[in-house]
Amino acid sequence: MPRRDLELASSVEHLVVLDEDGTLDKELDPDLDDELLLRMHRVMLEARRHDDRRLKWQRSGRIGTFAPVKGQEAAQIGAMAALKDTDWMVPSFREVAAFIWRGASLADMAVFDAGYNEGVAIPEGERTLPVAVPVASQLPHAVGIAYAGRLLGDDSVVMVFFGDGATSEGDFHEAMNFAGVFDLPVVFACQNNQWAISVPRESQTASKSIAQKAHAYGFPGIQVDGNDVLGSYVAAEEAVTRARTGEGPTLIEFCTYRLSVHTTADDPTKYRSEEEEKEWQERDPLPRFQGYLRSLGLLDDAVLEDLEREIETKIDAAWKEASAKMEQLDDQPLHIFDHLYGEMPPYLIRQRDSAAERRRS
């Protein structure tokens, strides 16, 4: 038989709506209302300031290590703004902005950062999963939720966040394959921040993009400027609409950069150059979006100062609440067994009962 070419998806679209200079592509403008634009900005700013305060808490020994979101706020908020409350959000370990968008308590986040499982207890009916630290382990969970939702007749969409490093794990490929085969309503939100801890993106894959990996599994992939909150929204809204209308999964590669450490146990000066960091500082998503809001007359110095004070007050109150919760929990060690399973397995029940007996004796 003669050789012949197969017809394959051969290109990946790169999307930008609001560029680094603040120029808006009017044809791609999602035309969001003022209330939504201001909410997106507030959560981005709150996540940034919360990160700043968490770093002080960690350095003073009040909480443990954590993964800052600084620099990646636009990718998370643009994506989250496309979801309904009835949709699922499946995070990794850096989705602080996404959690805040979903209404998560800053106090509970601090409680978790200090080492208490109670900080990530899922309220009844909530469709936001807790932090997943093992890299890529949350991706099969996400497609499992989507598959279960289909069986139950639920029209919800599942959005799962992960980093570029996760694409080197088997869990990523298994989840993508399963979602493609069963045409599941999943949005794979890859925050490509250029570094898997200290491993650069070009050392992880020979692919020209991460987005093109979707083609191998039979569904679309798109690359977007992840420091552009409007572009991130447009890409996510299109993917969510596809998923909700039965057109299957999408992989979105949000090209962004973590402007801080991988975690507070990391020293990026050991593997990143000052020149690289400075180049990405100039692409910071927060001032880019603030400049756009100023051009619309929605933000000025006075409004920003008031907002900064409100956020500072909120974070202060959250720490007081978290401190009170932690004092109570220190007296209730058996809570360590809670919030891990919907139905506690027998071996854990035995361990809990044994621990309780020892405390009584």
- Span between termini: 81 Å
Strand content: 5-15%
Average predicted confidence as pLDDT: 94
Sum up the overall morphology in one term: globular
Low-confidence stretches: none
Over the alpha carbons, how many angstroms does the gyration radius reach? 21 Å
Order of helices and strands: EHHEHHHEHEEEEHEHHHH
Strand order in the sheet with the most strands: 1-7-8-4-3-2
Number of helices: 11
Number of strands: 8
Structural class: alpha/beta
What proportion of the residues is helical, as a percent range? 40-55%
Q: Let me know the largest β-sheet.
A: 6 strands, parallel
What do you see in this structure?
With 361 residues, the chain is of the alpha/beta class. It has eleven helices and eight strands. A six-stranded parallel beta sheet has the order 1-7-8-4-3-2, with helices on both faces. The chain has a two-stranded antiparallel sheet with strand order 5-6. Helix 6 (170-181) links the parallel strand 3 (158-163) and strand 4 (186-192). Helix 1 (34-59) packs antiparallel against helix 9 (285-295), helix 4 (106-113) packs across helix 10 and helix 5 runs parallel beside helix 6. The longest helix is centred in the C-terminal third of the chain and has 30 residues, at 301-330. It is globular. The model has no long low-confidence stretch (mean pLDDT 94).
